[in-house]
Amino acid sequence: MKKEIKHIGVMGAGLVGALLSIYLRKRGYKVSLYEKRDDMRKSSSDSGRSINLALSKRGIKALEDIGVIEEVKKIMLPMEGRMMHSKDGELTFQPYGKEGQFINSVSRGNLNKILLEKAEASGVEIKFEHTCKSVDLEGTSVTFKTPETEKTMQFDLLFGSDGAYSQMRQAMLKTDRFNYEQYYIPHGYKELSIPPTEDGDFAIAPNALHIWPRGQYMLIALPNLDKSFTCTLFFPFEGQPSFESLQTPQQVLQFFKNTFPDSLPHLKNIQDEYFQNPTSSLVTVKCEPWVKNNCVLIGDAAHAIVPFYGQGMNAGFEDCYELNLLLDKHSDDWENTLAEYQEVRKKDGDAIADLALHNFVEMRDLVADDKFLVQKKIEAKLHEKFPDKWIPLYSMVTFSDLRYSEAFEIGKKQQVIMDEVMQKPDILENWENIDLEKIVDKL
Ligand code: FAD
């Protein structure tokens, strides 16, 4: 590790790269941020589509820390629970946590714009249309392709925040003793939309994350500021039914009519959107080490996860927050900081990756299961009675900043206890009389 760090390059001006560059600039480093796309604040390429994400405690904490939360609050829409849509149109609302606890739907584009504005105002140099073609891990240099030319730039330290298909990680992959694991789930996703009603209102309840759970697949919807919803269909690539099996507009309509009947009247442009919008895949990436010489992975580049816990961005923001804390702790000694960053965050990255995979089963399947719902109710009561002793796993991940790896371990213990409780033959009828103290004592 080169000792004196003055100029830091950050590759990828997505959510994590933009936030990271603000943190680094605030510490007094010269920061250059490079992005392959053009400046989203000037271009209209994303304006036709509104892709939204769930922002929760860990992400909010970092946004507060760098002083942009007031701006972000203006684009946050609270979602207090899951609104389940059964096949016959019955609605069931399941709160996410205690009263006053909610997650927030935010537009990815608008959040990214806020962060870019803040980065620029803090003195970060931002270069758009700079595609990283290769990284020299020994020389801490990057070769960029721009519309005009190809050039190589050298830095004292380099961060790869260039997402799930990171070029920096690609370079690390070629080095000795770099461990790498990737896993594509058999499902892909496609975005659809529910526009506002004719009188300009939300077509379905705005304060919830809507889920149409259907066993092997599901449809979800998150609200937008313009009173539309962005829906995502998580669906197998192959098999019956699947993206492969729905080939014609009639087949799509028939499928939605049979499977998500109450959504269909609201999905006004489904025929066009289904065929025009891309079908994208969902990958989990685990790798190690995240630091090679003076090159460091962060965000999705270090730990791409499936979106079912709504934590990918939140985890990436937490990477930046924790890195900044470690720089404080080690008085900007990068060698010690990065050693600890990797040690701590790798465990947490792995934990949230596994939790996210598991939550897909919960969302698409279990949320419609009576036994599961009773279990959630018992856990909510446990939390109410013993708020410090029993915190449901979802709350530990979403509403606390307990390390993901610790939450994961506690969650496993809780599950063993709850499996035993749920085996009682009359549990569905008599769950309200259960001895909560006895359950908590088992922890
Ligand atoms: P990215 O957002 O991928 O940004 C990487 C940036 O690098 C991009 O701007 C890209 O253009 C740029 N780039 C890439 N390659 C190069 C290159 N070679 N040269 C230069 N620039 C490059 N997370 C949540 O917390 N909550 C959610 O509700 C949620 N929902 C999701 C739903 C879906 C369908 C998906 C797919 C993800 C979801 N996520 C969610 C995860 C979240 O989107 C990611 O974790 C987050 O975007 C990671 O940020 P990042 O900056 O690390 O990567």
TrEMBL record:
Quote the catalytic activity from the record: L-kynurenine + NADPH + O2 + H(+) = 3-hydroxy-L-kynurenine + NADP(+) + H2O
Annotated pathway: Cofactor biosynthesis; NAD(+) biosynthesis; quinolinate from L-kynurenine: step 1/3
Pfam families found in the cross-reference section: FAD_binding_3
Recorded name of the encoding gene = kmo
Among its keywords, does the record have NAD?
A: no
Cited InterPro entries: FAD-bd (IPR002938), FAD/NAD-bd_sf (IPR036188), Kynurenine_monooxygenase (IPR027545)
Family assignment from sequence similarity: Belongs to the aromatic-ring hydroxylase family. KMO subfamily.
- What this protein is called in its record is Kynurenine 3-monooxygenase
A biological process (GO) annotation for this entry? Answer: kynurenine metabolic process
Q: Output the lineage of the source organism.
A: Bacteria, Pseudomonadati, Bacteroidota, Cytophagia, Cytophagales
Alphabetized PANTHER family for the sequence: KYNURENINE 3-MONOOXYGENASE
> What role is this protein assigned?
Catalyzes the hydroxylation of L-kynurenine (L-Kyn) to form 3-hydroxy-L-kynurenine (L-3OHKyn). Required for synthesis of quinolinic acid.
* Source organism superkingdom: Bacteria
Q: Which organism is it from?
A: Marivirga salinarum
